[in-house]
Prior knowledge:
Elements: E1 8-12, H1 19-29, E2 34-35, E3 39-40, E4 55-56, H2 59-67, E5 71-77, E6 80-85, H3 86-94, E7 99-102, H4 105-114, E8 119-124, H5 128-138, H6 143-158, E9 165-168, H7 172-205
Parallel strand pairs: 1-7, 1-8, 2-7, 3-4, 8-9
Antiparallel strand pairs: 3-6, 5-6
Helix pairs in contact: 1-7
Bound molecules: guanosine-5'-diphosphate and adenosine-5'-diphosphate.
Adenosine-5'-diphosphate (ADP) is lined by residues 13, 15-21, 134, 137-138, 169-172.
Keywords: ATP-binding, Cytoplasm, Kinase, Nucleotide-binding, Transferase
Function: Essential for recycling GMP and indirectly, cGMP.
Organism: Ornithinibacillus halotolerans
Amino acid sequence: MIEEKGILFILSGPSGVGKGTVRKELFERKTELRYSISITTRGMRPGEVDGVDYFFKTNEEFERLIDENKLLEYAKFVNNYYGTPKDYVMETLDKGHDVFLEIEVQGAMQVKKNFPEGVFIFLFPPSLEELKNRIVNRGTENEDVIIDRLKEARNEIEMMDAYDYVVVNDDVDKAVAKIQAIIQSEHCKRERIAAQYKKILEDELS
Ligand SMILES: Nc1nc2c(ncn2[C@@H]2O[C@H](COP(=O)(O)OP(=O)(O)O)[C@@H](O)[C@H]2O)c(=O)[nH]1
Ligand SMILES: Nc1ncnc2c1ncn2[C@@H]1O[C@H](COP(=O)(O)OP(=O)(O)O)[C@@H](O)[C@H]1O
């Protein structure tokens, strides 16, 4: 029997496109997925909980994690560090569970280099105008940060071609349904590989 490892799914997209909203809705429906809680040096927003939304750390603590090689990937995004805990992701995949990362583009490209078998999904806004409205209406960032995040959004959108799938987030329910379909489709691909492998073994034995 071949060892069944979990699949690593990576969701990226510009700030304000709706990654958090879509991810939360997905987890309401698809409980077998495991979410990897990221580590960040950004300040906590009202309503956020340490250890639920992020593990909130100081710059010093974060840089120690980098030095100790504890991160699968990390990036600086608009003056703050964000990173993925390596041990959690690797151990969870080894146990056969799918893992879901919600990370920005630079980090996703590091994962792609080291983990090309991951499935890379880009969440795309219906328009740049709508993206701006969503960031502004969310009301969690000041004007300077919003301008920086919108600049970053243009760079991020240019990297879209490096992703396996693009999902437009015009409607949350539809976007979640598409991501669920991608997850199922990727499992069917793995099942095909497993079936081919089984057939080869059976042919050898006969
Ligand atoms: N590279 C990397 N990016 C992350 C990680 N966690 C979150 N991010 C991304 O960092 C960016 C900023 O996140 P945040 O400050 O929470 O803002 P928001 O996603 O716009 O609500 C978003 O694109 C996140 O997806 C991580 O572990 N690694
Ligand atoms: N499909 C959608 N239609 C309208 N508004 C949305 C949609 N998806 C998300 N939003 C809203 O856009 C804002 C940004 O969403 P959020 O999930 O915080 O984005 P991100 O995590 O990508 O920065 C939030 O106020 C959210 O309620």
